[in-house]
Write a structure and sequence with these properties.
By secondary structure, the chain is mostly helical. It has two domains: 6-152, no CATH class; 170-502, Neurolysin, domain 3 (Orthogonal Bundle). The protein contains 20 helices and three strands. It has helices at 6-34, 41-60, 62-76, 83-100, 103-126, 133-147, 156-162, 170-191, 210-224, 260-278, 295-309, 313-327, 336-342, 360-376, 384-396, 422-441, 445-450, 455-464, 474-482, 489-502; strands spanning 231-235, 241-245, 248-253. Strands 1-3-2 form a three-stranded mixed beta sheet, with helices on both faces. Helix 1 packs across helix 3, helix 14 crosses helix 16 (422-441) and helix 16 crosses helix 20 (489-502). The longest helix is centred in the N-terminal third of the chain and has 29 residues, at 6-34. Bound molecules: zinc ion.
């Protein structure tokens, strides 16, 4: 290893500042979604766009390109797995992507995103797609202009995917989702109950006071690894996790009076996200490597805690006495086996965020098919609601009652987020692939979970996934950990085994 040229320190210093600006933005986002009074929105939009402009200017500064070029010959002689070489690759990627998009187009897009969210809110309130139609057409047009800023890809959708899941292509995703779709349609047909049951078969229907729920959630979180000196839990209408530094992790949950399952599972989900951010190696802090590598890998961590752990038989057995102590008689007389069966029930629902583990990915596959068709131009914006309703019937056997509970249910398209939805399903697939490996490495894991001993699990995730941050691209990380490529079979095998286990 030769001594690093002074340009490396100069680049690191610039990137540390950029990281700080990003975390200030995160703080504003957290505040906006937990604390800010509604009338603060206009001023916050100004703060946000000013900060965005400053960050964009720093990242696209020609001096960053010059430093990267100067460092390239040195990096070529270094260990390709070293932190410095990986850092340069990540900075080059971020810099070149940002430079390619003209400032005027970036501004147009962020303006359209704000207007689109407004139009979406109004359309959803009126349950009328026609109020959202023009904003969506504008988003599609802007995405085409965005795609044109880059070297032509095999498919224009690849450029959009790459913003959320670096390196993933449509060609890779399409057959994977087709396999998943065909298998899941059959599994849902065999396992779903048709009656309009409460979620989790009513196991958590209460009613439960919000204070009681919060106390119960905190006891569970602290037992699985929430550190009160480095984490916060707050209520938010749409739960999320956000870290402002390695020792400042903010997670949120939502309290539904008649369904403690909402708070319980969303807290476990966001805990998984938080644990990832908290577990990134301290030496990567304030560096572009000190962040989660992709939305798919991020989501694999949350789904792992929510579903593979949180809905497992040993976890249900361990958590039930805790919940009973905190929630009292409102929990009814359910036993651990009953809880395990209830939280793994399969139900057809028109709503993605209410979907269980088995039906969930079909909601995503529908959105993927429709996004692809909109970008390819084979589906006209005006025909989207009909295509949505047809898809819900075809994939899930669900009749969509209206646009609000159908095509307008998610904020993503309003905010111009195309290429984002697939990462939810990637998270489920990656979680199952990691779990297979984890079980081989930790043969006692089920018994440990049953005793509430979660340190070995946290350590395994920290060692194999969390500490690396963005050092290895997502598919390389998966391969390093599992020796495998991205594929749906481990998830399908996990799901089939679960459904056979809970079948009456
Ligand atoms: Zn998530």
């Amino acid at each position: 290893m030769s001594e690093a040229p002074p340009e490396l320190a100069a680049l690191r210093a610039r990137m540390a500042e950029l990281n700080d600006l990003g975390q200030i933005h995160s703080l504003m986002f957290w505040d906006q979604n937990t604390m800010m009074p509604p009338r603060g929105a206009a001023a916050r939009a100004d703060h946000s766009s000013t900060l965005e402009l400053i960050s964009h200017g720093r990242l696209t500064d020609p001096e960053v390109g010059r430093l990267l070029d100067t460092l390239a010959p040195w990096a070529a002689g270094e260990d390709p797995d070293s932190e410095a070489v990986r850092l340069l690759a990540v900075v080059r990627r971020d810099h070149e992507k940002a430079v390619r998009v003209p400032a005027a187009l970036a501004a147009e897009m962020s303006h359209a995103d704000a207007l689109g969210q407004q139009a979406w809110q109004e359309a959803r309130a009126a349950s009328d797609f026609s109020h959202f139609r023009d904003a969506l057409a504008r988003h599609v047009e802007l995405r085409h202009r965005y795609v044109e800023c880059f070297e032509p890809a095999a498919h224009p959708y690849d450029i959009l995917l790459d913003d959320f899941e670096p390196g993933l292509t449509t060609e890779e995703l399409r057959p994977l989702f087709e396999t998943l779709r065909d298998e899941l349609v059959d599994l849902v047909a065999a396992a779903a109950t048709n009656d309009a049951q409460a979620r989790n078969h009513g196991a958590f229907s209460g009613p439960f006071e919000a204070d009681d729920q919060r106390r119960a959630v905190m006891v569970v979180l602290e037992a699985v690894g929430f550190d009160p000196d480095g984490w916060r839990l707050d209520p938010a209408p749409h739960p999320f996790a956000q870290s402002l530094g390695p020792q400042d992790v903010r997670i949120t949950t939502r309290y539904d009076l008649h369904d403690f399952g909402v708070a319980h599972f969303s807290a476990l989900h966001e805990f998984g996200h938080g644990l990832y951010e908290a577990g990134i190696a301290p030496e990567l802090a304030r560096s572009p490597l000190g962040a989660p590598v992709s939305l798919g890998v991020h989501e694999s961590q949350s789904r792992l805690w929510e579903n593979l752990i949180g809905r497992s038989r040993p976890f249900c057995g361990w958590v039930l006495p805790i919940l009973r102590e905190q929630l009292g008689p409102a929990l009814g007389t359910i036993d651990a086996e009953g809880l395990y069966r209830a939280v793994n029930s399969v139900q057809r629902s028109p709503i993605r965020v209410d979907a269980d583990e088995t039906t969930y990915n079909l909601h995503i596959i529908l959105r993927f098919e429709l996004e692809l068709a909109l970008i390819e131009g084979t589906l006209a914006v005006d025909d989207l609601p009909a295509a949505w309703n047809e898809g819900m019937h075809r994939l899930l056997g669900v009749e969509v009652p209206d646009d609000a509970l159908g095509v307008l249910q998610d904020v993503h398209w309003g905010a111009g987020l195309f290429g984002y939805f697939p990462t939810y399903t990637l998270g489920n697939l990656i979680a199952a692939q990691l779990w297979t490996r984890l079980q081989a490495d930790l043969p006692e894991i089920e018994a440990q979970i049953g005793r509430g001993e979660l340190a070995p699990l946290r350590d395994w995730l920290g060692e194999h996934i969390h500490r690396h941050g963005r050092k290895f691209p997502p598919r390389e990380l998966l391969h390093r950990v599992t020796g495998d490529t991205l594929r749906p079979e481990p998830f399908l095998a996990y799901l089939r085994a679960k459904l056979a286990d809970v079948a009456p």
